Amino acid sequence: xxxxxxxxxxxxxxxxxxxxxxxxxxxxxxxxxxxxxxxxxxxxxxxxxxxxxxxxxxxxxxxxxxxxxxxxxxxxxxxxxxxxxxxxxxxxxxxxxxxxxxxxxx
Length: 106
Fold this sequence. Notes:
The protein is an alpha+beta fold. It has helices at residues 6-9, 19-30, 34-52, 98-105; strands at residues 56-59, 63-70, 73-76, 83-86, 89-96. 0% of the residues are buried.
């Protein structure tokens, strides 16, 4: 069996699915109207945003959102390569569920 090269290990770049394409796919899969699916999608985004503010929020079979505090750190301006200080502050973290990871990666 040939040894895998770096190039063969990289994922094939694909165009990300747009919101409209996702609405269409869910509508087709469920038989619900696009208008209904769009309303549910908007509500889901609002609920996730509100719940994530509380600290930790899990969407079963998808993953877990959490707010973490990042420490102040040194970064670099990519254009000038100059060192800059990135202030401490909250950041949203996402961890993929085992179920979704197994579905995607096998």
